[in-house]
Amino acid sequence: MIGKSTTGARAVRTAAALHVFLGLAFGVGSVPVLAYFARVGELPMSPFGWRYMAGPFVQLGPDRFTALGWTLVALSLIDVAAGTWLWQRRRRGFRVGLATDLPVFVLGLGFELPLLLIGVPVRTALAIAGRRNLR
Predict the structure, then answer these.
(1) Cα–chain center distance at 131
(2) Looking at the predicted structure, is the pLDDT value of residue 2 above 60?
(3) Which is it for the CA torsion 121, 125, 127, 131, positive or negative?
(4) Considering the entire predicted model, what is its pTM?
(5) Which of 20, 11, 35, 14 is nearest to 79 (CA)?
(6) Could you tell me which of 131, 119, 135 has the C-alpha nearest to residue 12?
(7) Could you tell me which of 130, 115, 131 has the C-alpha nearest to residue 18?
(8) Which residues, at least 6 apart from 132, have a Cβ–Cβ distance to it below 8 Å?
(9) What is the pLDDT of residues 42-92, one digit of tens each?
(10) Over the stretch 16-45, which tens digit does the pLDDT of each residue have?
(11) How far apart are CA 111 and CA 68, in angstroms?
(12) CB of 87 within 8 A of CB of 16?
């Protein structure tokens, strides 16, 4: 039987990995989309026929869309730091991660990013479940 401590530590490590993965994916992946948008004035097409980041935020106009996009990039980089601290079982990673979860989720809604809409609630639940294993 796996003990509570082992299960909590595993939950924290998984939450940490999700913070780093999602942070890198959107912190790095959004930059070329925003650069293309700034250069061409429209969002790039995926190979599957849909436009990247083409959620309701597009209707806010190019300036607001771009500002929100760069906000996602900045929060994603903060998530990488939070994930690193969580991996080290530092309580500050838990606090910083929780602070970014809601804004990142809202940005995921506005840009229609399903990976964030699934990943953010999962990482939040895992971090909360394992928080007793943090120092």
Answers:
(1) 19
(2) no
(3) positive
(4) 0.93
(5) 20
(6) 131
(7) 115
(8) 4, 8
(9) 999 999 999 999 999 999 999 999 999 999 999 999 999 999 999 999 999
(10) 999 999 999 999 999 999 999 999 999 999
(11) 9
(12) yes
Taking the CA of residue 78 as centre, how many other CA atoms within 13 Å lie in the half-sphere pointing to its CB? 17
Does the pLDDT at position 1 exceed 90? Answer: no
Tokens 């082992």 belong to 6
Angle formed by the axes of helices 91-110 and 114-130, nearest 10°: 160
The whole-angstrom separation of Cα 68 and Cα 5 is 39
* 66-96 exposure pattern, b = at least 16 Cβ within 10 A, e = fewer: eebbeebbebbebbbbbbebbbebbeebbeb
